[in-house]
Amino acid sequence: MNSPAHAIYSSTLSLSLPGHEFQPQYGVQLIFNETAENVLSCAAICTQNPSCRIFDYDSSSYRCRLFEADLTNGAIIAVASRTSIVGSVILSASIYTSMYNQSCSACQGNRYQTCSSTTNKCQCSGNSYWNGSMCPLLLFQNATCGQIDACRSDLNLSCIINSYGEFTQCSI
């Protein structure tokens, strides 16, 4: 099925073994904490939210948590409960390179890129940035950055340039 509506929800996910949950590095990374009927419902909620990169689900409490995070700014941890599982959205450059900076028709209905109203071109969505091959999440404080737009400006962070003119780390 290749309809635009299908593309919005199309994602490849990886699931952890039972007995794990996601621990974000920062509280702001939690974007949803509700109930879901089962792990597939929780996964569907994640794929419908362009900001979601990781989710965890507990089948005993029906808790579904979505995170704007990945394993560079959080961790999958073992927990005592065997009813909790983590799902990660698998990203690859091929998702991005074929449409980045193309006309908006190329990314219509796509969860990974959005149409920029200023350029009328496909751009990284939400809290992500173009690194030349894909749209990783913007970085948090003290993270090593390699370009000016890699840090979370909504948290007043910018990529600091050292005395040699090299980008170093995200800082206020």
TrEMBL record:
SUPFAM superfamilies: Hairpin loop containing domain-like. Pfam families: PAN_1 (PF00024). Residues 3-104 form the Apple domain. This is Apple domain-containing protein. It comes from Rotaria magnacalcarata. The lineage of its organism: Eukaryota, Metazoa, Spiralia, Gnathifera, Rotifera.
